[in-house]
Write a structure and sequence with these properties.
Helix content: 25-40%
Low-confidence stretches: 1-22
Number of helices: 13
Mean pLDDT: 92
Order of helices and strands: HEEHEHEHEHEHEHEEHEHHEHHH
Number of strands: 11
Strand order of the largest sheet: 9-8-7-10-11
Structural class: alpha/beta
Distance between the termini: 27 Å
Radius of gyration: 20 Å
Amino acid sequence: MTSWREHRLSSRHHEAGAVRDNRGVRHLLSLTELTGDDLREIFARAARIEAGTLARRDGAAALFFPSSSLRTRVSFERGAAEMGLQPIVFPPEALDTVEDAVDIVGYLSAWVELLVVRHTDLHELRELAAPGILPVVNAMTNANHPCEVLSDLFALSRETDVRSLRVLVVGPDGNIARAWEEAHRAFGIDVVQACPEEVRTPALPWKEDLSDAVQEADVIITDGPGEHTAAMAPYRITADLLDSAPDGVRFAPCPPFVRGREVSVAAANHPAFVGYEFKRHLKSVQQAIMGWAIEG
C-alpha cells in the first residue's frame, strides 16, 4: 500500500530518484524568475497577513542559517512558527555534503513543507530546487538577496506605485545591488547605482556623481562597502545629501550598516530615515513568500 507521504512525493513529480517534471513547485531563488502576477500575489498575501488574516497550517520548515544571521533568521523563524510551521534550524554547512541534492530533499520531504536557505552559493539552492520535490526560498546568497528587496518594495507599495519611484542604490557590486538589478529587470523598477565605476554592478544603470544622483532619488538604499572601504568612502550618505534630495525621500540603509562608514551619524538620525519602519514588513513578506511557495 502506498503511504500518504509516498503519494505526496510522487505527486511532486519525483520517481525512483529521478526528476520527471518540476513545474508544479514554486521556488523563490531570483527576482527575475517571478512574474508580475507572482509579485501581486505575494504582496496581497502580505497585506492580508498584516490585516490579521494569517492562514495557519500544520507542518514544518527546514531553515538553513549561519549563527551570525540576525534579522533574516529571526523574521523567518518567528514567521514560520506563527504560520503553524515548526522551524527546524540547521547551519548552512549541513548542505555542504557529498550527498546529492535530490537525496537531501527526497528524504526531508517526508517531514517538512519547504526549505528556507541562506547559503553563500546560489548554485547550491538551484541544485536543491531542481528535483521539484520541495519549494526552496532564497534567504540570501552572495549573488542576491531577493526577500530583502521584496520587503522594501512592499513597504513602498503601501504608499504609492513602486514603478513611479526612482531608487538609488549606493554601494559596490554585491548581493544587494544585484537583487535591485533583478527588480529593475523583472518589474521595471527605476533603479540607479552610485559608486566608483570599477565596482559597479553590470547591467545596472549607474552614476558616478553621488550628489547628482541623490537629487533625483525618491528612495536611497545603502550597502556596506565590503572590501571596497577606501573606494566607497566618498559615497557616504550624509544629512546634507539627504537635505538635497527631493521632498519625501526615504532613506533605508540595508542592515547591518555602520554609522560613520556608509552612513553618517546625522544621516541615521535624519527624518528621511525609514529603516526600522521598512524592515517591520520583513516578517509578513517572508510569511507571504512561504505561503505562496507551499500552496503552489
